[in-house]
Every structure is written in structure tokens, then in C-alpha cells.
Amino acid sequence: MTDATTALLDELRTHVGAHHVLTHDDPGTDLGAWEQDWRKRSHGRALAVVRPGSTAEVAAVVAACARSQAATGVSIVPQGGNTSMVVGAVPDATGKQIVLSLQRLNQVLALDAGNSTLTAQAGCVLQTLQHTARDAGFLFPLSLAAEGSCTIGGNLGTNAGGTQVVRYGNTRELCLGLEVVTPQGQIWNGLSGLRKDNTGYDLRNLLIGAEGTLGVITAATMKLVPLPAAQLTAWTAVPSMEHAVALLGLAHKTLGAGLTGFEVMGQFALSLVARHMPASKVPLYETTPWCVLLEVSDHESEEHARAQFERLLEAGMEQGNITDGVVAESLSQAKALWQIRENLPIAQAMEGLNIKHDISIPISRIPEFVRVTDAALAQALPGIRMVDFGHLGDGNLHYNVQAPAGEDAAAFLRAHETTVNTLVFDSVTRFGGSISAEHGIGSLKVDKLPGYKSPVALDMMRAIKRALDPTNLMNPGRVVRVQV
Fold first, then answer.
1. What φ, ψ does residue 71 adopt, rounded to 5°?
2. What are phi and psi of 244, to 5 degrees?
3. Tell me: the pLDDT tens digits for 360-375?
4. Three-state SS at 50
5. d(CA 403, CA 385)
6. Alpha-carbon distance 477 to 324, whole Å?
7. Is the pLDDT of residue 162 over 90?
8. Backbone Cα Rg of the chain
9. pLDDT at residue 1 tops 80
């Protein structure tokens, strides 16, 4: 370790406290929880894990790293709950990166009932925001499988989606204001609860989805909506993806804005939940290629919601879009059905390493995309197993590939991941889609992005990165590569 690096670490200790600067040299310290990504695809080595306890401390840490960067070669990787799916929040192997953990910034700062907003620090766990809102008679509608461990800062950094995008939009649509530490260590306080502010460039939306490459989000003001009077959940069997899309159109027509969730799940994906989590008791999947999970939220009454739901299901069966279905009769039954959906990624992980794709396709073209791409993959790699599920309501599929049964999964990934990704991403492009819908780019897709995004758009992105972070201090090698 150089004298400059030692001096930097000593300065960081003065800013956040010695016990909040963790290094490999500290006796009994294991940094593995910060250095290993959630999918266990990458394990880096951090110079240190720094855990500031306030926005002012974040600013002091960033400023110190910026001043010393020329001498130390240090850079910063912001990290919340470390649930990134695209290796976007762990250090590389150089041993020169500071992991800036925001988990101590975990407080709800304010709830303004009159303005229907909640302001929270970036390290606040998503589930905490949900519970705080509910206790005050509101709904914070962002909901995803990792909500018990992911943080609102990470959700904003990747513009996370989840299961209620069809009604409420991605995280970007739920955010009204941000507090951000710039790569120079300055603090931008943009935590307004304004729904209209037309005073220049939209800095908030620029920073949302930037994956920590343009600054560190330290707090956010988020929209709340009234708690619905009733929520009902149904699980239906559908005979094809075409019928699932037709059912979605019928649901929009019948339920209108009341449609809050529309999830599609393939038979093999559900079989993994049934195999690895038998207590889940997956309904209907054995006799149908696809199942759909629907949710309606109603602000009038449960009777009104149930009448609408029954009308939808009756029409769906009459038109042949539904072959069978069950409606949850209690909150516990509804939670059990949603838990099956949330268990899909876990069950797939239990089956073994896999190749994940978080893609979006125009909804009308999804059936043809699945049919064409499934066939191409089966021809290229006989025996592969498709784990398909996702948010059909907003055109987002988790289009995942599992190794053939009995084959070594790690060896399969080493031999075929590039082939699979190229085939899938090329098909996504032909169908007018995107190679990332809600997980981001991270480092996993950063070198693939130039093949699937407009060169003009990439030039604009690089220009923004150079303008705001000219020394490439913030999360380098993620989203877009730049030369310094």
C-alpha cells in the first residue's frame, strides 16, 4: 500500500469513524458480503468498505477520494443492499476501489400526508418504505422479490420495476426529488415534493437509472397513493402466450386503472418452484403451458372489485383465453400465490447456475418473439430448458436459460453463455426490444451495449459521463465505458 493510499484511508477514518472504514488488514474482518455479488457471478477485492452515517459524511468521503485519485488511482463503487443482478455494485479485482456502503443511511426522514410523499435516506430498505406508508394509510407501490433487502437508493440507481409497473410505473415514475452527492463531493439538495418544476434540465431523471456512475443518491422523495379499499388476486391457466396477451387486453378493458399486476409464468419455471419448494403448492401448472397471476386494486369496495374480477374471468373463459382459474378468498391465499411468483428466481438458483435475460419487447410481439427465439435456442443447444416468467403487463420478460438436465451448469455457462446472449439479444433487437428492462447494465452488459444501442445515444451518454465525472471516479466500467 502506498503512502498516498494510507493517507487517504486515515482521512476517511477521520470523516466516518475508524470502525466504519473496513479493510482486509483489520483483524477478523471479512469483506465478502460487500465484495460478492448477489448471483455469485463476481467476487472482487475492495481497498476498503466505507460506511458513512450522513449525507455530509458521504460528501466528505467522495471529496477526499476525488482529491487523492491522481495519486492513489482510487475509485468509488456505491452500494445499497447489494442485490444487483448485473454485477453493478461490487468492486473489481484491482484492490483500488472503495465500496461506499449506504446501509447506515437507513431512516425515513419525513412523511407528508397532505402532499402524499415520503422522504427516505438511500439505504432505507424498500420494505421499510412500504410499511411506513401503510401505517399512515398510504400505499408505496414499488414491489419486487428483493424488497426485504434491496434499498431505495439501489432501486433508483437501476430504475427498478417490479410487479406493479402496469399501474404505477417504474421507480422513476414514483420519484419526485433526490439528494445527490456529486463526483466532486458537493451536495445537490433536490428533495422537493413538486410534481411540476420546469426550470431546466431534468437532473433527477438523469441520475435515476445511472447506476451510481454520475453521483451518489443519498435520499429521495417518493410518491404515495391512497390504500385501496380492496385488492383481489387470481391465478389462471392460459393455453398460449397469444392467449395471455389477449387476456391482458381484456383485463385493461374490464378493469381499467384497477389492474395493478399481470404476471406470466411458464410451465417449466413453475415446475422448479414445485420441485424445490413443495410447500408452495403451485396450482394448475401441470396441465397448461402458461399461468397468469392477476391483481386488481379497487378504491370503492371489495364487492365492486369482485364483480369486476368475475366479469373479467367469465369473459376470458368464454373467449378461450382462460382454461381454468382460482381466485384468492383471503389475504393469506393471495400472499401464497404471490409468493410462488416471487420464489421463481430462488427456485431457478436452486436448480443451478443459469443465464438470465431481463428484456422488454412490445407486448403485441411477445408471442412471436418467444416462439421464434425458443426454437432458435433449441436448435443451437438441444436440451436446454427455458425458465420464462415476467411482467407481461409492461412487456418485461425474464427470459432465462437453464443448462440441459444432468449437465454441469458452470461448464455450460463457460461454453455457451456468449452464444446464448448473442442469439437472444439479436432476436430482441429484431423484435424492437431492449436488452435491459429493469435490472440495468452494470458490468455484465457494458461491453454488449454498443452492439445494441444507437452510436449517437452512446456518444451522448459518454459526453454526460465526462461532463459530470471527468476523472471517472464513480463506478467506472458500469453502464458505459469512457476513456480518461
1. -85, -30
2. -65, -45
3. 999 999 999 999 999 9
4. strand
5. 6
6. 48
7. no
8. 23
9. no
* Helix pair angle (302-318, 241-255), 10° resolution: 140
Chain position carrying cell 385493461 = 252
Report DSSP letters for 187-209, one per residue: EEEE----S---SSS-HHHHHTT
Copy the grid coordinates of residue 339: 409468493
Cβ atoms of 462 and 482 closer than 8 Å: yes
Would you call 447 exposed, middle or buried from its count of C-beta atoms within 10 A (0-12, 13-18, 19+)? exposed
Q: Are 187 and 181 in contact (CB under 8 A)?
A: yes
> Rounded CA gap, 216 and 81, in Å?
14
Give, in order, the Cα–Cα distances in Å from 11 to each of 53, 104, 268. Answer: 16, 19, 54
Residue 241 is placed in which grid cell? Answer: 402466450
Distance of alpha carbon 200 from alpha carbon 444, whole angstroms? 33
Torsion sign over Cα 364, 365, 371, 374:
negative
Output the nine-digit C-alpha cell for 214.
454520475
pLDDT, tens only, 47-82:
999 999 999 999 999 999 999 999 999 999 999 999
How many helices and strands, by DSSP H and E, does the chain display? 15, 19
pLDDT digits (tens, 9 = 90+) for 225-272: 999 999 999 999 999 999 999 999 999 999 998 999 999 999 999 999
Report the predicted TM-score, pTM, of the whole model to 2 decimal places. 0.93
Contact yes or no for 211/442 (Cβ under 8 A):
yes
Question: Containing H/E element for 98?
Answer: strand 97-101
